[in-house]
Specification:
Two copies of one chain form a homodimer.
Chain A: H1 5-14, E1 17-22, H2 28-43, E2 47-50, E3 82-86, E4 105-109, E5 120-123, H3 130-140, H4 147-160, H5 171-182, H6 187-195, H7 199-209, E6 213-215, E7 220-225, H8 227-233, H9 241-245, E8 252-260, E9 263-270, H10 275-281, E10 285-286, E11 290-295, H11 299-313
Parallel strand pairs in A: 1-2, 1-3, 3-4, 4-5, 7-8
Antiparallel strand pairs in A: 6-7, 8-9, 9-11, 10-11
Amino acid sequence: MNCSSQEVRRILEQHDRIVLTAHVSPDGDAIGSLLAMQEWLEGLGKEVVVAVDDDIDDKFFFLPLAEQIRRPDQVQTDASWLTVVLDATGMDRIGAADALAKGKVLNIDHHISNLHFADWEYVRTDCAATGEILTELLADWQAEFSPSMANALYMAIATDCGFFKFSNTTGHTLRMAALLVEAGAQPNVVSEHLEARSLAKLQALSEVLRHIELFGEGQVACLSFTPELLQYTGEHTGSYIDYIRTIQGVDVAFTVKYVGPEETRVSLRSKRADVNAVASVFGGGGHVRAAGCTVAAPLEEAKKMIVKELLKVK
Amino acid sequence: MNCSSQEVRRILEQHDRIVLTAHVSPDGDAIGSLLAMQEWLEGLGKEVVVAVDDDIDDKFFFLPLAEQIRRPDQVQTDASWLTVVLDATGMDRIGAADALAKGKVLNIDHHISNLHFADWEYVRTDCAATGEILTELLADWQAEFSPSMANALYMAIATDCGFFKFSNTTGHTLRMAALLVEAGAQPNVVSEHLEARSLAKLQALSEVLRHIELFGEGQVACLSFTPELLQYTGEHTGSYIDYIRTIQGVDVAFTVKYVGPEETRVSLRSKRADVNAVASVFGGGGHVRAAGCTVAAPLEEAKKMIVKELLKVK
């Protein structure tokens, strides 16, 4: 059942030992929400442990508490512990951290696909980020925001709305961010750390940008992550699509990535066209403007199949 | 003299014919401020002309009024016209538009270097953007924001604070942006148009990123715009420095650009070091974290001279 703000506060206050967790592949919203919550709860005198079943990107280590995040197998809990699941839609999203939830579970989340799985929940799909929800809750509880809490929550919000560029940015999103800057958040420090890239990553970007192909009179842009290109980029290729998505005149951007000789992973983004429909043809799916599928064909052939389908929906 | 908000309103209401202008090389803040002001004043029944002594980047043309901006020589004024100078510190910043100022001049600006030149002025150095000032003024006047005014002002604010990433982003900056989104501004539409790049620009970026050099154990990053590289990039190379400034471990980023066989233009950015001091050695200057100079030496030699000075201040 969906709690009120005051009910959430009461649940947290009634537990002395709390484990905080979030989804695997934790992003800025997950990490920022965890660390702000940890700091506030520790200030109340609670015993708090933050556990995430994944590596923590070192770009988050400018937040002092980030290095203390543990793996679930390093943590012991019992049924007296409250488990707070932040920014995750279900227990299947938190990996091995689900084993720590021996007692009651509170879920705070903003995803529309939330599975409503917890004993108590506070799900706000009108918010762009879990950090936006937490900022409102903490303000409602008249909590004091330290500068480090404010930085963590500013990162949380900014990450999930693309620094106030995405369509999920509302007046409320910006007002919560305003409150954080007034509490000591430093947008330049947060952005500096989020944007830091290694020289190797920039050199990989240079190589990737040499492989852009346009189709359909420039309305479709494609990047092919061949085994050769993957040697530069490594396996994490998800962010490159943004470079081709923003090319003037391009409506649909897609990437094809080598998985095996007869297996190609496809990601699609669009400004207008329904790419969910295209992904569905190949047994994939997603949203109208962001979808993906896996094609049982070699990379070059898969690319041609996708272009053909895309030109049908144009 | 610095007017009050209500005095600014009265000055605008007392004039029936108004020419709006802004600095040359108009950026998002200048253009967004001009177009929002134009729309509001036309709504009051004024005769309004917007004149800028420069080309208007076509990325601004998603704002309906942007294509109507004229060159000063296409405009006729007389002493009865009010000239409103937006986002400019002095008459020397508006190029040939100064010839249109035959009557009174009102200046609305946020730059600390403002020359206090106008008959009336409203200078707010606490604001990150002229668009932030105008949003506050229009809200104070209970003006109605149309969605296109809101988009123009959101662009104005977001441009000058790097989409809420720069240290000039305050709670007030974000609150004004919130008000605009609630009035119909579309952050995704604004950002999509500001970020649109041609394929040629991305290919130029790819080439530029192949030329990064690091010095001083990776704390200094450099890009050299040789005549060969300038064939890819064209003369507008100002934005590339952001890519090397954000490399992990880099404190100072600088670019050297070929001007002539014995003339090299240098731009410096830093996170901590005082680059103004380094630029001063060569007769240049600027701010602690952003400065520039021109060195009377060939590019390669100028680069070595700058590195040598930089390693002294490290």
